[in-house]
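Q: Structure tokens for this one, please.
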Amino acid sequence: MPQETQYSSFPHINRGYNSTFQPGRLSLGLVVPLENYASGPVPTMQSHLERVQLAETLGFAALWLRDVPFNVPSFGDAGQIFDPFIYLGLLTGRTERIALGVASLVLPLRHPAHVAKAAASVDVLSDGRLILGVASGDRPEEYPAFRLPFAERGARFRESFDYIRRSWEDKAEFENAFGSPYGGMDLLPKPVGGRVPLLITGSSQQDPDWIARNGHGWITYPRAIDTQAKIIGDWRERVKAAGGPAKPAIQSLYIDLATDPQEPPQPIHLGFRSGINYLREYLTSLEAIGVNHVALNLRFNQADTDTTLQRLADEILPEFSNQGR
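A: Here is the predicted structure, written as tokens:
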């Protein structure tokens, strides 16, 4: 049984966080853009708003954007193209219930005052639906464009993380490598619940105990079930040793949903192609080892996207929806 099932809930932070994550349960979200663009790094973004609204109507728990400032050839994926905060502003006005996540914002490449203000603004405008994943960045080519040293991204990540959290306090005064607010100035608006959930992605160049102490959750990548169980178990033990509350574990997953429900799995980049029966079994196994949310990525999905979303909603979501649980 997942270790966190001894808790009835995760800490209350905002509507998006607490509707998406529940102890002992797995919910499902989607990585935008919601389309197949396997043949190249840049999506068309056609029908993107209609599909976002369809995802909400069908009952998916969350949408996940990425922070990709440059289309880096070696990375091979331009994400949703639009700046995440600009796009979040649009999605805030076109959706009502679905959580709006970023997985993940590259903190060392942005000034934390701008991140703190933009995140709080989205949280207020969406009535508390923002979930902010943060990371140190994994594309060395981007750092020279900002005249920043790639080797120092770990230290910059920690300083930025601290600055953002402190900025949401009332008239905070503190010393930080990015700057030192003082003199009664105040960053506005404040998040709905006083803070926005900050989920740390991967290692972000940090000590595992620091991650366990400081993040409101952890975002990681797909692995074999036994390996993933050990890694998440180790993280939960560190969270417990830190003396804080239970926290959710989140995983990404690329899928290519075959027409035949019985088709066995075949590996693809950070995921698999399979029939819907294997996908259901795999998600059930993730729930059993304590994964609380899976963000599905349809970039390599060969079937029609709208049809795939409907199939997932009809045949998978009823077993992995936090609504009514």
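A few notes: The CA atoms of residues 88 and 122 lie 7 Å apart. The longest strand covers residues 249-257.
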